[in-house]
């Protein structure tokens, strides 16, 4: 039998949940190991948040440069090299993943590339890779194995004609035409990316709006903006009858009684994710699951004593910052640094242009809950900074308690929305009222003034509308 070492914490999975957990335990002076099957950084750094944002930056810049004239500039003979755009994105991922490996060293985290399995409570086995057969004894185990892409049943994914985001992120050739199934954040971001570089894009969503979790007005504006960009957007539409040929995919778009045939060079499936526990648990280790996700208590412990879980593997929302929050909370709790907290409020962001960001309740959710709410709205067309930057599409909308001014939710569509949302996140966390946001002096001219003006609009006191 291979040698065993005793750890305070063994983490399985090196994504934003796993790597943050391991680093935090290292900071606390604990003996910690992290086992990662592929590369430190997980989906987020290697196949998710970071490489998509690198691609989107190129897309956004290319779009902007085409509008050079609006700024009094001339940019003639503009062109792009899509393979280089993708190469840059892969490079950014590699750089960030290396950074995590450096942080592991700095915080004395023992990093194993391989597949980890909870073989019994208090025991982890490495079942694949260079360290295969090694046993790690652990006072605590944290499962952070994340999710994998959900696939359309019956459709063969060959990674070229039919892809998930993972293959798309490494594909060096821009497809001439693409049909994207699913208009959640991932589908929407790829639609913007491909269209920005000139591909013919059809974006299909089964639900009544693009970005189904976002505020209805925000989704409507994004829908219109995407159509203006030349994306064919179909909501309330199902994709059926897929035929994958040598050079194209054909399918039917079904909306009510209407059926339309569509052909595209590539199909990108972006219909969500499902839990990934493949090989992570020995058959004798059976933590309680809920729809395939690990069920955890308020301290992030599963039903198996000493085995904890955080991140995508404990269910939605599937977001990197939520994964990290959960993992840090779990580890701090395990080692007696405060009471673990479950996630209540979290921002959700989509990095197309215009960007979309939100936190808390949508107006519809407030209505459905029967809350006595007020809405304050401020358009970027009335923001000096937005107009000066020629980025005046969009608005800020804030939903508050009609009596107390408590902030229920904030919704932003427009330039830098994903950066701006942090202010409302802090306001909600600190239980600030909408009056307090209104009274806070915001620098002029900045886009952030629109957050203050939306707050003021709730009180009927906005100056610029
Ligand atoms: C295209 C795309 C874009 C996204 N963009 C954003 C975004 O902009 N913002 C955002 O917040 N979120 C985004 N996400 C979601 C985000 O990536 C996830 O929410 C986040 O990565 C979850 O972190 P995690 O640590 O729980 O899991 P993961 O990051 O998935 O990490 C799990 C890790 O565990 C490893 N693993 C699995 N099983 C084992 C095993 N048995 N042994 C060892 N290792 C194992 C996997 O290899 C993986 O590296 C995006 C996702 C995708 C796919």
UniProtKB/TrEMBL annotation:
Q: What subcellular locations does the record give? A: Cytoplasm
- Going by the entry's taxonomy, the superkingdom of the source organism is recorded as Bacteria
Per the entry, the cofactor note is: Binds 1 FAD per subunit.
SUPFAM superfamilies linked: FAD/NAD(P)-binding domain, FAD/NAD-linked reductases, dimerisation (C-terminal) domain
- What positions does the entry give for FAD binding? 53, 116, 312
- Cysteines engaged in disulfide bonds, as pairs: 44-49
EC? 1.8.1.4
Pfam families reported in the protein's UniProt record = Pyr_redox_2, Pyr_redox_dim
Gene Ontology cellular component? cytoplasm
User: What cofactors are annotated for this protein?
Assistant: FAD
Q: Which reactions are catalysed by this chain?
A: N(6)-[(R)-dihydrolipoyl]-L-lysyl-[protein] + NAD(+) = N(6)-[(R)-lipoyl]-L-lysyl-[protein] + NADH + H(+)
Q: Which residues form the Pyridine nucleotide-disulphide oxidoreductase dimerisation domain?
A: 347-455
Q: Which residues bind NAD(+)?
A: 182-189, 205, 272
The miscellaneous comment for this protein is: The active site is a redox-active disulfide bond.
**To which protein family does this belong?**
Belongs to the class-I pyridine nucleotide-disulfide oxidoreductase family.
The record's listing under PANTHER family reads:
DIHYDROLIPOYL DEHYDROGENASE (PTHR22912:SF217), DISULFIDE OXIDOREDUCTASE (PTHR22912)
The protein's name is: Dihydrolipoyl dehydrogenase
Organism of provenance: Cephaloticoccus primus
């Amino acid at each position: 039998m291979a040698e065993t070492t005793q750890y305070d914490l063994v983490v399985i999975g090196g994504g934003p949940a796993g790597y943050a957990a391991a680093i935090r335990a290292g900071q606390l002076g604990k003996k910690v190991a992290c086992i990662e099957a592929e590369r430190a950084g997980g989906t987020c750094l290697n196949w998710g948040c970071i490489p998509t944002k690198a691609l989107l930056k190129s897309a956004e810049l290319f779009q902007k440069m085409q509008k050079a004239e609006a700024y009094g500039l001339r940019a003639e003979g503009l062109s792009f090299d899509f393979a280089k755009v993708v190469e840059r994105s892969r490079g950014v991922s590699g750089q960030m993943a290396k950074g995590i490996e450096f942080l592991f060293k700095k915080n004395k985290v023992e990093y194993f590339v391989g597949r980890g399995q909870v073989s019994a409570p208090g025991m982890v086995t490495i079942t694949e890779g260079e360290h295969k057969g090694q046993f790690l004894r652990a006072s605590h185990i944290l499962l952070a194995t994340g999710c994998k892409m959900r696939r359309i049943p019956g459709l063969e994914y060959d990674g070229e004609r039919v892809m998930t985001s993972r293959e798309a992120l490494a594909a060096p050739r821009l497809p001439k035409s693409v049909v994207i199934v699913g208009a959640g954040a991932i589908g929407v971001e790829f639609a913007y990316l491909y269209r920005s570089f000139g591909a013919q894009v059809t974006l299909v969503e089964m639900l009544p709006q693009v970005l189904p979790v976002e505020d209805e007005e925000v989704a409507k504006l994004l829908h219109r903006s995407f159509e203006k960009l030349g994306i064919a957007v179909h909501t309330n539409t199902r994709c059926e009858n897929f035929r994958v040929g040598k050079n194209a995919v054909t399918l039917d778009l079904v909306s009510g009684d209407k059926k339309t045939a569509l052909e595209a060079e590539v199909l990108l499936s972006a219909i969500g994710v499902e839990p990934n526990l493949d090989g992570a648990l020995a058959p004798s280790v059976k933590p309680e699951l809920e729809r395939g996700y690990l069920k955890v208590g308020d301290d992030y412990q599963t039903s198996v004593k000493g085995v904890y879980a955080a991140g995508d593997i404990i269910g939605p929302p599937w977001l990197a910052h939520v994964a990290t929050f959960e993992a840090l909370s779990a580890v701090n709790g395990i080692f007696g640094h405060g009471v673990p907290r479950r996630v209540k409020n979290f921002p959700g962001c989509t990095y197309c242009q215009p960007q979309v960001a939100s936190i808390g309740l949508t107006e519809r959710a407030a209505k459905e809950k029967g809350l006595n709410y007020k809405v304050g709205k401020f358009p970027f067309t009335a923001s000096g900074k937005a107009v000066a930057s020629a980025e005046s599409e969009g608005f800020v909308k804030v939903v508050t308690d009609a009596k107390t001014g408590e902030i229920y939710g904030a919704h932003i569509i427009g330039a830098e929305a994903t950066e701006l949302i942090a202010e409302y996140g802090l306001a909600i966390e600190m239980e600030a009222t909408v009056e307090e946001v209104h009274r806070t002096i915001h620098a002029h001219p900045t886009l952030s003034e629109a957050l203050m003006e939306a707050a003021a609009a709730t009180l009927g006191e906005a100056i610029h509308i």
